[in-house]
Amino acid sequence: MEKVLNVENPLGCERVGRLLARYAVPSIISLIINSLYNMVDQIFIGQGVGFLGNGATNIIAPIATMAIAVSTLFGDGLAAYFSLHLGQGKPEKAAKGVGNSLVFSGVVSILFTVLAFGFLQPLCLVFGATKNILPYALGYGRIIVIGFPFAIVATVINSAIRTDGSPKYAMFAMMIGAVINTVLDPVFIFVFHWGVEGAALATVFSQFIGFLCNVAYLFRFRNIRLQKESFFVEIRMVGRIASLGFASCFNNLTSTVIAMVSNNLLTKYGALSEFGPDIPITTFGLCMKVSMIAFSVGIGVASGSQPILGFNYGAKKYERVKQTFLLSAGTCTLITFAAWIVFQCFPLQLIRIFGTESELYERFAVQCFHVYLLLTFLNGVQMCAGVLFQAIGQPVKAAVVSLSKQLLFYVPAMLAASRILGLTGILWAGPIADALAFVLSGAFCIRELRKMDGMYQIKDDCAAGAEAVE
After folding, report:
1. What is the per-residue pLDDT across 99-114, written as a single tens digit (0 to 9) for each?
2. Which of 257, 358, 371, 399 is 20 to 30 Å from 456 by CA-CA measure?
3. What is the structure's pLDDT at 342?
4. What is the pLDDT of residues 240-264, one digit of tens each?
5. Is residue 413 classed as helix, strand or coil in its secondary structure?
6. DSSP class per residue in 85-111
7. Is residue 38 included in any domain, yes or no?
8. Quick one: DSSP state of residue 392?
9. For residue 469, is it within any domain?
10. Mean pLDDT of the region 70-95
11. In this predicted structure, what is the pLDDT of residue 4?
12. Distances (CA, A) of 428 to 55, 366, 409, 410, 435
């Protein structure tokens, strides 16, 4: 019976390139749309409020990243759990995983929202808010945190939708919210003059609509059927799902640590420079946001490979696992190289999307793009390496690979280089971390792919598989 499932499911026998395109394109669009939520806010805030308003969104961004960490803990973990059990011919276990993930993510998201709202001002100060930026950050953040439960649960469901074989629906559910946010932002900011609070309201309302679209899919899964028993919580199962999503979750959590360290260092050394404390923290944050739009394409390719990797590893088709990884890693490298060219050649044009400010502001922004993003073309391998180990059920290796750039290399490099070079040292820590993470990720992947060569695998031939069953 298991072989019949593997033969009939296109993940097990359709051409890898076609599968990757089918899953990656909607994933790319979904991730870009997700990045645009905050990006669109910053564009209209920059035009309607000014760079201090953009500085405020950069202070709230690490708090929002903590919410994203919760969603990836259960969302990415569920995607891996779902695809592995479908590959093994156990749809009832996959359905149980969906139900358990929804219940736990809902409870955790509500608790996180309450805590974030209650401790918002201390959090803003921890993440480097200056006295000029703090009022804007509080106004924006008090509204944004209300939307966290909708965003978190929607992301978890969206991961299951993609893995179930409906990436287009997953893309639509993400896109509808982003379109609404883009329409409401200028209305609330320029027509009603609600400032940063208006941008936050537009975001929360659009997240709620996206949440409803994702919930609607729960009644139309292709490969599983949710029943009342699916929502009875099994702690052991939740722990397994969380372990598979731990790498993605911890990767996002380390982003908040990096934001805390970098924001405070930027404020400290910026105050000692000609730029002052407000310009570095704002322009560096905008540089990060712009780069994330481009990297969303690469991350989308990596995420799109996850169901293919997980299913075929579970089905013991290791040659297809290798083909999928090599194709996705090569594609991601081409994407990050193209992004690198844009970052190095057009930094001023990119930063002016968010409004035209002083000569000092633009000078430091250009420096951010030229120095911090100097070796970003190396990031493609690391993106795919973390997904590979997550998909094949090796959460420890996934965590090490995913966290290597930020936690193992970037933070120490930033602390050391800033002592020597001051404000510029914070920027040079970026390419140092990129180079070291590339070497580590490549070594891990080469070793794992070679190990697959010696493992027993089911022949990758659908017709042969059907004959074997008969």
Report:
1. 999 999 999 999 999 9
2. 399
3. 95
4. 999 988 877 877 887 788 889 999 9
5. helix
6. HHHTT-HHHHHHHHHHHHHHHHHHHHH
7. yes
8. T
9. no
10. 89
11. 39
12. 22, 14, 12, 10, 12
Whole-angstrom Cα distance, residue 1 to residue 278? 63
What's the rounded mean pLDDT across residues 127-152? 94
| Two structure tokens written together for 114 | 């309450």
C-beta of residue 54 within 8 angstroms of C-beta of residue 285:
yes
Query: Residues of the chain with pLDDT > 70: what percent?
Result: 94
pLDDT (tens digit, 9 = 90+) per residue, 187-218?
999 999 999 999 999 999 999 999 999 999 99
Domain of residue 249: give its range. 2-464
Specify if 252 maps to a domain.
Answer: yes
DSSP letter for each residue of 253-310: HHHHHHHHHHHHHHHHHHHTSTTTTHHHHHHHHHHHHHHHHHHHHHHHHHHHHHHHHH
285's tokens: 């944050």
**Which among 215, 119, 201 is positioned nearest to 161, based on CA atoms?**
215
CB atoms within 10 A of CB 325: 26
Question: For the chain, what is the domain count?
Answer: 1
CB atoms under 10 Å from CB of 229, counted, come to 10
Threshold 0.90, pTM exceeds: no
Among the residues of 120-147, which ranges form H helices? 120-126, 134-144
Structural domain includes residue 470: no
